[in-house]
Specification:
Elements (H helix, E strand, L loop, with lengths): L20 H7 L38 H11 L12 E10 L19 E9 L14 E9 L2 E8 L12 H8 L15 H9 L4 H7 L14 E2 L4 E4 L5 E10 L8 H10 L3 H11 L5 E10 L25 E10 L4 H6 L12 E3 L3 H17 L81 H8 L3 H16 L4 H11 L4 H8 L9 H5 L33 E5 L6 H13 L3 E6 L3 E4 L5 E4 L1 E2 L10 E4 L3 H8 L2 H12 L3 E5 L2 H7 L14 E4 L8 H15 L1
Parallel strand pairs: 11-12, 11-16, 12-15, 16-17, 17-18
Antiparallel strand pairs: 1-2, 1-9, 2-3, 3-4, 5-7, 6-7, 6-10, 7-8, 8-9, 13-14
Helix pairs in contact: 3-4, 4-12, 5-10, 11-13, 12-13, 15-19, 16-18
The structure holds CIS-heme D hydroxychlorin gamma-spirolactone 17R, 18S (HDE).
Length: 712
């Protein structure tokens, strides 16, 4: 039965509480609908918006048609170059608030005043794919935060993985060329599973630690809202006395870190390439504002060499068991952008955008980044005035004599465009040691100029092993499966061999397991060690495992915002459904009724049950769990429907919690899944009493609670 059209739900991320200084600033350049009338860009009102100007109705178009020319010309130039990396991204507005003053460590205002809500704009991205590639590919995720502080812009441009592939900026173009599509045929899109990436990786043992992370489930997050972020490099914090601490930044999601399984990720890439973008957008529209806690690992300047490895090496992390992560503040994303291009696409991040109190370390990768990010905006955004684009403007003014250039917005008054000056109305601008200004930490550097890598960067395997050791059995299996998949896509056996030879330095068994289905020899660590430029070195870590590196057990244990499919057809027992659905929703889950057609189905008691989606337009991979309600007819019709059968079987394969009530169990049995008869891991199938016995609310509550626990 067709249902009446619903008016759109109110946008909960659009209230007075979700505005801030940046949003108010942007309002000044926001255009609203409906338009009063149509005009050209020059404001000339248009009389006819369907027809170009022609010499006679069947004649050629006239060059004179300035309206057509303007429209087409603008269209012709709508595209700008996509980001050379991190082209695919999704973003949102929000705020950051520090819990208590961190003035002991930094003079940065946003980290000193707990009453201050600093506006932020956050862009998440994949790295390798083009701007229209799928969200759920195996890849590192970018995690860029622009803080619009009272003292200028601070960009924390990080990733969802705390280490990086390479140690020196010199190798970045090579890394990116190797992972992107191969230059001769332009394949594959958004995937590292091809020869050139693994050729490069296997020749560069320093990639090993990051490869372990990239092959783990971290690289296929369930949601952008459910992944950690890391500043990666070691930065410096400077307090008002000039004391320095090294710092590593961490973002921990309130909902915990969760991942897809690989088969699921691949299928979603086809069924809904915008899966992560949609998830972020919908959560914010629903008022389920994603939240992260900012944490810091702080190391006093004089303890720089106390860790046993080099904190300047971006292929190393500092285990939390060695230096705990101090929770510092929270970030909430509560507003979607108004316009994808103007905000998400034009936002320009740069690790060199810092404010007084935050400074760099000598990490050679970070040092290279400090050059690259302004440079890239010149070709991407078309000139040096990209800081004047609305999304990139600070909420505090900027004052200098930089002038002109493409697309200059500011109209600077006066005769003077240089400093120092005496003609600029008394503004002599002889700045020397302004204590309010940014002060670089006066580190002493007295060394010859050299083009060499520090020996303290030589060990490439100890932390890779630490990561592997710290994973649970399931996570380890996923890492092995990912290496097997990726390397099985490599055509040249010698590359596969070199890679597993490298892995033998991490863990013999891991390397052997990876090699098994790849049609190559057993791994040989000595062969890898024979490579040019390879220097064997091992550091001593005081720990063998770091539980904090596993994703298991993160988050608040809730099922907030998880999506539950309720499979229905005619004859569904809606009475048995109601209490379970209510319990799920009061635990924060989002239920969608999925049926054979849109509109509604008729329940066993002849009521209309509204259907939100169909088995095909929202397949099982779109959900976190499945509920099959009771009802003899419901079970019969679902069993006769191949799509419904596929739905539950696929959900089972992806280890999702499935709750079957009464006759609903027959649907699962029809695809070979029966409680007690299958080797389903605990929590995958929650079976409940037959419908006729489920009348009591108390029992339904019990089932619901078991289901909720299984999902969590
Ligand atoms: Fe980037 N990176 N990167 N990167 N990166 C860019 O800047 C670069 C690195 C990261 O959402 C580019 O505006 C070099 C590490 C993110 O807009 C470019 C090196 C980390 C984003 C660039 C690195 C990152 C970028 C492309 C090695 C994690 C997306 C477009 C020296 C800490 C930002 C742009 C956004 C984007 C260069 C290494 C994270 C070309 C040269 C390490 C999240 O400038």
């Amino acid at each position: 039965m067709p249902t009446k059209s619903k008016s759109p739900a109110p946008r909960r991320g659009r209230t007075a509480e979700t505005t801030n200084a940046k949003i108010e600033q942007l309002a000044g350049t926001t255009a609203e609908l409906p338009l009063p009338h149509l005009s050209t860009n020059q404001g000339t009102r248009i009389a006819d918006n369907h027809n170009s100007l022609k010499a006679g109705v069947r004649g050629p178009t006239l060059l004179e048609d300035f309206i057509l020319r303007e429209k087409i010309t603008h269209f012709d130039h709508e595209r700008i170059p996509e980001r050379v990396v991190h082209a695919r991204g999704s973003a949102a507005h929000g705020y950051f608030q520090v819990y208590k003053s961190m003035s002991q460590f930094t003079r940065a205002g946003l980290l000193n005043d707990p009453s201050l809500k600093t506006p932020v704009f956050v862009r998440f991205s994949t790295v390798a794919g083009g701007s229209s590639s799928a969200d759920t590919v195996r890849d590192v995720r970018g995690f860029s935060v622009k803080f619009y502080t009272q003292e200028g812009i601070w960009d924390l441009v990080g990733n969802n993985i705390p280490v990086f592939f390479i140690q020196d900026a010199m190798k970045f173009p090579d890394l990116v060329h190797a992972v992107k599509q191969e230059p001769h045929h332009g394949m594959p899109q958004a995937a590292s599973a091809h020869d050139t990436f693994w050729d490069f990786a296997s020749l560069m043992p320093e990639t090993t630690h990051m490869l372990m992370w990239a092959m783990s489930d971290r690289a296929i997050p369930r949601s952008l809202r459910m992944m950690q972020g890391f500043g990666v490099h070691t930065f410096r914090l400077i307090n008002s006395r000039g004391d320095a601490h090294f710092v590593k930044f961490h973002w921990k999601p309130k909902l915990g870190s969760h991942a897809l399984v690989w088969d699921e990720a691949q299928k979603i890439a086809g069924k809904d390439p915008d899966f992560h973008r949609r998830d972020l957008w919908e959560a914010i529209e629903n008022g389920d504002f994603p939240e992260w806690e900012l944490g810091m690992q702080l190391i006093p300047q004089d303890k720089e060499h106390s860790l046993g490895f080099d904190l300047l090496d971006p292929t190393k992390l500092i285990p939390e068991e060695m230096v705990p992560v101090t929770p510092v503040g929270k970030m909430v994303l509560n507003r979607n952008p108004d316009n994808f291009f103007a905000e998400t696409e034009q936002v320009a991040f740069h690790p060199g955008h810092v404010v007084p109190g935050i400074d760099f370390s000598n990490d050679p990768l970070l040092q290279g980044r400090l050059f690259s990010y302004t440079d890239t905006q010149l070709s991407r955004l078309g000139g040096p005035n990209f800081h004047e684009l609305p999304i990139n403007r600070g909420v505090c003014p900027f004052h200098n004599f930089q002038r002109d250039g493409m697309h200059r917005q500011t109209i600077s008054r006066g005769q003077v465009a240089y400093e120092p000056n005496s003609l600029g109305n008394g503004s002599e601008f002889r700045v020397d040691g302004d204590s309010e200004g940014f002060q670089t930490y006066p580190e002493t550097v007295e060394s010859p100029k050299v083009r060499r890598r520090s020996e303290s960067f030589d060990d490439h395997f100890t932390q890779a092993r630490l990561f592997f050791n710290s994973q649970t059995a399931v996570e380890k299996e996923h890492i092995i499966a990912a290496f097997r998949f990726e390397l099985s896509k490599v055509d040249v056996p010698a590359v596969r061999q070199r890679m597993v030879d490298n892995l033998a330095h991490v863990d013999e068994k891991l390397a052997r397991r990876v090699a098994e289905p790849l049609g190559i020899e057993s791994p040989d660590a000595k062969a890898a060690a024979g490579q040019a430029g390879y220097r064997e070195a091992r550091i001593n870590l005081p720990i063998e495992e770091s539980p904090a590196l596993s994703m298991i057990g993160t988050g608040d244990g809730s099922i907030k915002t998880r999506k539950i499919a309720i499979l229905v057809s005619d004859g569904v027992d809606s009475a048995s459904l109601k209490p379970i659905r209510e319990a799920l929703e009061s635990a924060g889950a989002m239920c969608k009724v999925v049926g054979p057609r849109l509109g509604s189905v008729t329940s066993a008691s002849k009521r209309q049950v509204e259907v939100d989606a169909t088995f095909t337009n929202m397949p099982s991979v779109m959900f976190d769990a499945v509920l099959v309600p009771a009802g003899t007819e419901n079970a019969k019709t679902l069993m006769a429907n191949g799509e419904a059968q596929h739905f539950v079987l696929e959900a089972f394969k992806h280890l999702k919690s499935i709750c079957v009530v009464g006759e609903g169990a027959q649907l699962l049995a029809s695809v070979g899944v029966e409680e007690g008869k299958t080797d389903a891991p605990a929590g995958v199938v929650v079976a409940a009493t037959p419908a006729q016995q489920l009348g009591e609310n108390e029992e339904a509550q019990g089932i619901a609670q078991t289901f909720v626990a299984a999902i969590a």
